[in-house]
Amino acid sequence: MLRGTVFLKNADRLDIRLVVAPGLRVESEPMRLRIIFGNMISNAIKYQNVYADSSFLEIKVSALNESHFEISFLDNGIGISEEAIGKIFSMFYRGTELSDGSGLGLYIVRQVVQQLQGEVRLKSQPGQGAKFTFVFPFFTAHPFEAEAPQNGAISPPKTYISQG
Q1: 148 inside domain
Q2: Percent residues over pLDDT 70 in the chain
């Protein structure tokens, strides 16, 4: 997930921490998770506060309740204005003049989250960083389901997030 971000300007300044709740095991689709993680890490690098002594991104994976888990991305970057928060997931919206992107990253993230039957929460203030929280249902297979795909269908690969 970090491969595409190591060459971004100031990537070496960002301290990325991953915290997974003890005993938690989450199953999901790897390509969709890569899209979410890649965009969020890339944005944390691009929009870090370069004037701060240190920059961080803390990624937490935890159970919200018995039916849902959450993945949160908390940074101490430049933050997002209240006006921009309402538009930030819109196609082609660029929240700051610092943006050199197409305005598609967070739009795509929102689409992927919806495909995973999830929701997005965002808290931020300019100069105070941002916290994006993604809430997803736990995906569990019925214990009596056949392991092999039916009718020649190809099952999507799975990604497991668990405490190592």
Answers
A1: no
A2: 77
Locate the DSSP E strands across the chain: 14-20, 25-28, 55-63, 68-75, 119-124, 130-137, 159-162
Q: What pLDDT sits at residue 147?
A: 44
Q: How many other C-beta atoms can be found within 10 angstroms of the C-beta atom of residue 53?
A: 6
Query: Is the entire prediction scored with pTM above 0.70?
Result: yes
Q: Is pLDDT larger for residue 126 or for residue 25?
A: 126
Assign residue 32 the CATH number of its domain: 3.30.565.10
Determine the pLDDT at residue 141: 39
Q: What total of structural domains would you count in the chain? A: 1
Cβ within 8 Å of residue 4, ≥6 positions away: 38, 42
Range of the domain at 109: 11-139
Asked if residue 50 belongs to a domain, the reply is yes
- Residue 133 backbone phi and psi in degrees, to 5: -125, 125
Neighbours of 145 (CB within 10 A): 8
Residue 93: how many CB atoms within 10 A of its CB? 15
| C-alpha distances in Å from residue 68, one per residue of 63, 65, 71, 107, 125 | 6, 5, 10, 23, 27
Which phi and psi (to 5°) does residue 141 adopt? -85, 145
Q: What is the pLDDT of residues 7-55, one digit of tens each?
A: 678 888 899 999 999 988 888 888 999 999 999 999 999 999 989 999 9
